[in-house]
Amino acid sequence: MNIVLLGPPGIGKGTAAGKLSKKLGIPHIATGDMLRENVAQKTELGVKAKSLMDRGLLVPDDVVIEMIKEKLQNDDCKNGFILDGFPRTINQAEEIKDIKIDKVVNIQASDEVIVERISRRRVCSKCGFIYHLDFIKPNREGFCDKCSGILNQREDDKPEAIKERLKVYREKTEPLINYYKEKDLIVDVDGSGTPEEEFELVLKAVS
Ligand SMILES: [Zn+2]
């Protein structure tokens, strides 16, 4: 089954995609990871992407699209895949329109729920491990279980920053959701519960 996962930042899309990948035995393709992989392996596209990122530039659409297309042609994708973080725009969706998509799972929650949830994230200042004060609690408040580093809140995870990211997401993704709605592929899933509840609903949506 070929699946696209959509959802705002902080909805737990990556976590749900990872679990779904294990459950269904198909790869989880996250654009960010793929980019890092290509850079690490110094592929032609990776080298191109790195030179742009080193100059503080965004990796342009056509490079990302090229990477995705290459990836989707791999043998491990022939029984299906889960796309996470791609497509983000109608243009990107059009670029992969020759690849059959079976379901587009749209995970949703209100801004209030997401702001509340992300603002409870803490990051270890030493090892970078990400905690969550409700779901992945450190044993000792304020300190990392793995390395005893001090836990901080990222600037990006503060309410004002989250609200801005959500605004950008909604503006950019709304047209994409309508695009897939017209193709009758969208299944809405409630992402306001715990990660376990969310995963059950995602699983139901693709079953
Ligand atoms: Zn740590």
Helix content: 40-55%
- Strand percentage, roughly? 15-25%
Based on the structure, what is the oligomeric state of the protein chains?
single chain
Number of continuous helical runs: 8
Strand arrangement in the largest pleated sheet: 2-3-1-4-8
CATH superfamily of one domain, called what?
P-loop containing nucleotide triphosphate hydrolases
- Rounded Rg: 18 Å
Which residues form runs of ≥5 with pLDDT under 50? Answer: none
- Mean pLDDT reading: 92
CATH architecture of one domain: 3-Layer(aba) Sandwich
Helix/strand structural class: alpha/beta
* Largest beta-sheet characterization: 5 strands, parallel
What's the level 1 CATH class of one domain? Answer: Alpha Beta
How many strands appear in the DSSP assignment? Answer: 8
Bound molecules: zinc ion
Output the CATH topology of one domain: Rossmann fold
**Anisotropy-based shape:** globular
Ends: how far apart?
10 Å
What order do the helices and strands follow? EHEHHHEHEHEEEHEH
